[in-house]
UniProtKB/TrEMBL annotation:
Protein name: Methylated-DNA--protein-cysteine methyltransferase
Keywords attached to this entry: Cytoplasm, DNA damage, DNA repair, Methyltransferase, Transferase
Domain Methylated-DNA-[protein]-cysteine S-methyltransferase DNA binding per the UniProt entry, residue ranges: 70-149
GO biological-process terms attached to the record: DNA repair; methylation
Family affiliation: Belongs to the MGMT family.
Keyword Transferase (UniProt): yes
PANTHER family: METHYLATED-DNA--PROTEIN-CYSTEINE METHYLTRANSFERASE
InterPro entries: MethylDNA_cys_MeTrfase_AS (IPR001497), MethylDNA_cys_MeTrfase_DNA-bd (IPR014048), MethylDNA_cys_MeTrfase_DNAb (IPR036217), MethylG_MeTrfase_N (IPR008332), MGMT (IPR023546), MGMT_N_sf (IPR036631), WH-like_DNA-bd_sf (IPR036388)
Catalytic activity: a 4-O-methyl-thymidine in DNA + L-cysteinyl-[protein] = a thymidine in DNA + S-methyl-L-cysteinyl-[protein]; a 6-O-methyl-2'-deoxyguanosine in DNA + L-cysteinyl-[protein] = S-methyl-L-cysteinyl-[protein] + a 2'-deoxyguanosine in DNA
Species the sequence originates in: Geodia barretti (Barrett's horny sponge)
Coiled coil regions in record: none
Enzyme class: transferase
C-alpha cells in the first residue's frame, strides 16, 4: 500500500503525519503533507495530536509501525511507557534496557514518530535537557515539557 500524509498546524509548527497500511509510520516537523484528511488513521492522529496540544489528551491510542532496528524499537517502547508529565534520563532507560546512555540518545534521535512516541520526555542526568532533533531542537523540547508541566526545575521556560 502507498503511504499517505497530511500536515496539521501545532504550537510547535507544522507537523506532517504519515501513515501506511492503517498505521502511523512518521511524524515530521514541517509541512509537506497533503491537506487534513477526513477519514482513516491520519484523521485520528490529527485529532489526537490536536487534543494533546490543547491539554486534553495525555495518552495516544493509535496503531504505530515505526521502522527501526530491534534495539531502537525496544527503546521506543520504553519511551511510550513514560507517563505524561514525567521524564526519565538517558541513564534510566539505559539501565532498564541493559544498554548505554549514548545508545539510548541515538535511538531517541532516530525516533520516526516523535510526540506520539515521547522522546521529549527523555532528559540528561541531573535534569539536564539533553538533545532534541525535531522542530527548533531544544527549544521545542522545552515547549513540549512545559506543556506537560514536566520541566525539571533547573530548566524552567
Amino acid at each position: 500500500m502507498t503511504a499517505t500524509s497530511c500536515t496539521i498546524e501545532s504550537p510547535v509548527g507544522p507537523l506532517t503525519i504519515t501513515a501506511e497500511d492503517g498505521a502511523v509510520t512518521a511524524v515530521d516537523f514541517g509541512g509537506g503533507g497533503g491537506p487534513r484528511p477526513n477519514t482513516g488513521v491520519l484523521t485520528e492522529a490529527a485529532r489526537q495530536l490536536t487534543e494533546y496540544f490543547a491539554g486534553d489528551r495525555r495518552e495516544f491510542a493509535l496503531p504505530l509501525t515505526p521502522q527501526g532496528t530491534p534495539f531502537r524499537r525496544r527503546v521506543w517502547a520504553a519511551m511510550q511507557a513514560i507517563p505524561y508529565g514525567e521524564t526519565r534520563s538517558y541513564g534510566d532507560l539505559a539501565r532498564a534496557l541493559d544498554s548505554a546512555p549514548r545508545a539510548i540518545g541515538g535511538a531517541c534521535g532516530a525516533n520516526p514518530i516523535p510526540l506520539i512516541i515521547p522522546c521529549h520526555r527523555v532528559v540528561g542526568a541531573g535534569g539536564a535537557l539533553g538533545g532534541f532533533s525535531g522542530g527548533a531542537g531544544c527549544d521545542t523540547k522545552r515547549q513540549l515539557l512545559a506543556l506537560e508541566r514536566a520541566l525539571p526545575p533547573t530548566l524552567s521556560v
